């Protein structure tokens, strides 16, 4: 069982308001589990509502959460879809053991009501309500990003970044991206000592907010929506609120690779809460990556995967009467091959896992960024990274998604492998 620690120190913690800097730092470390099965719950939300700070559990339910201790009546909320939320006081005692057990709270709905609901009507209402449900005034998001690449049961690429996004409203067109800190470790041997690697651009991170580009988004956009069929699955408990659950899959006669998955929409406000999608078995045979932009980003590496796996989860959370992007998760697998005569690679299969978490929301008098503090939105974050993994204490004081592996140990192992560079022809 993991422990709960209360650490008294005056540390700078990005994602915590400046007026709270003199308060004690509370570090929660534990695991969120299903009360009936004892299994860890992935992507449970751990949030501190007074200042919009939050984090999430990893795929095994493990988490670490860092906040300044607040007022005596403040609390931390732990929630998960389909489970009853629990709260903790911010006045925790040092050394307490912490295992958060959540109980299921299913909602039953009669067949008569289920059959009367049109899923497309719910989706249309949700799209019409976007201007009301999502921000229409300036906001600032603190974010954390991790991209992991695996091959042959080992990690060959690891990059992380802390950044901020400023937006005037819910549209993604006017958003600004400011990089605070980043780091990268890459196994050059695995990539054939070439420039090829997996990357993410700032504009790509901004684009994960599907609501901000709803008319061109996967599944719900004007191009893809007619290619899918939708079904009403009923009402579920979504972190204490009733929500519609809608399933979708590409139509059987569509000869192109599209998706299947679920959409969660708040019953009262019709706000989009979550969208989960993966490649549909009906069209996976048609999947190929032929984008010139993708190939250019990988230094002309060819990715033509007919058995490519791609799963995405996007979630939103309420704050101050509006809904904001909370978490983006993507897991892919496929084949990566290419390179020049002196640097050939063939990774088959390789796997990538991407996590982007909004760790704090701020709407109080925020201003646009100064141009000199911005980076190129089209240049990969990995090419604008600071190589400071082992010595930089910054990461110890920032909210992030707890990795399921020891980050520093993996980085050390990658660097050790890079010492054994083969003789090139």
List its traits.
single chain; 425 residues; mainly beta; Immunoglobulin-like; 2 domains; ten-stranded antiparallel sheet; four-stranded mixed sheet; disordered N terminus
User: What count of structural domains?
Assistant: 2
Spatial strand arrangement across the major sheet: 11-10-9-18-17-16-15-14-13-12
Radius of gyration, Cα only, in angstroms?
Answer: 22 Å
Structural class determined from secondary elements: mainly beta
Mean pLDDT: 80
The low-confidence runs, each spanning 5 or more residues with pLDDT under 50, are 1-22, 290-306
How many distinct helices? 6
Question: Helical amount among residues, as a percent range?
Answer: under 10%
Largest sheet: 10 strands, antiparallel
Q: End-to-end span in angstroms?
A: 52 Å
How many extended strands? Answer: 18
Oligomer: single chain
Taken as a percent bin, the fraction of beta residues is 35-45%
> What does the overall shape look like?
globular
Order of helices and strands: EEEEEEEEHHHEEEHEEEEHEEEH
């Amino acid at each position: 069982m993991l422990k709960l620690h209360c650490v008294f120190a005056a540390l700078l913690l990005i994602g915590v308001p400046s007026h709270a800097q003199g308060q004690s730092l509370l570090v929660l470390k534990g695991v969120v589990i299903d009360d009936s099965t004892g299994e860890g719950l992935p992507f449970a939300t751990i949030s501190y509502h007074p200042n919009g700070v939050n984090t999430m559990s990893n795929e095994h339910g493990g988490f670490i959460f860092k906040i300044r201790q607040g007022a005596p009546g403040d609390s931390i909320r732990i929630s998960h879809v389909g489970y009853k939320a629990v709260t903790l006081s911010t006045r925790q005692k040092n050394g307490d053991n912490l295992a958060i057990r959540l109980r299921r709270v299913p909602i039953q709905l009669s067949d008569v009501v289920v059959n009367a609901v049109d899923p497309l009507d719910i989706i249309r209402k949700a799209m019409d309500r976007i201007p009301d449900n999502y921000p229409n005034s300036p906001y600032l998001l603190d974010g954390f990003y991790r991209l992991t690449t695996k091959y042959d049961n080992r990690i060959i690429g690891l990059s992380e970044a802390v950044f901020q996004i400023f937006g005037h409203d819910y549209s993604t067109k006017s958003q600004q991206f400011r990089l605070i800190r980043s780091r990268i470790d890459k196994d050059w041997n695995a990539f054939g000592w070439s420039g090829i690697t997996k990357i993410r651009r700032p504009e790509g991170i901004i684009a994960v907010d599907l609501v901000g580009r709803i008319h061109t988004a996967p599944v719900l956009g004007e191009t893809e929506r007619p290619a899918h069929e939708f079904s009403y699955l009923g009402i579920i408990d979504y972190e204490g609120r009733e929500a519609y659950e809608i399933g979708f899959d590409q139509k059987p006669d569509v000869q192109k690779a599209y998706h299947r998955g679920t959409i969660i929409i708040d019953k009262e406000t019709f706000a989009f809460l979550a969208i989960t999608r993966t490649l549909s078995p009906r069209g996976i045979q048609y999947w190929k990556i032929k984008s010139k932009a993708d190939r250019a980003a990988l230094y002309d590496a060819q990715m033509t995967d007919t058995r490519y796996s791609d799963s995405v989860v996007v979630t939103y959370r309420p704050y101050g009467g509006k809904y904001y992007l909370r978490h983006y998760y993507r897991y892919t697998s496929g084949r990566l091959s290419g390179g020049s005569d002196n640097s050939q690679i063939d990774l088959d299969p390789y796997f990538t896992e991407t996590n982007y978490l909004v760790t704090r929301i701020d709407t109080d008098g925020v201003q646009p960024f100064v141009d000199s503090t911005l980076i190129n939105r089209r240049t990969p974050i990995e090419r604008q990274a600071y190589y400071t993994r082992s010595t930089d204490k910054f990461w110890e004081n920032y909210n992030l998604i707890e990795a399921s592996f020891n980050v520093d140990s993996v980085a050390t192992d990658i660097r050790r492998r890079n010492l054994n560079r083969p003789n090139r022809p």
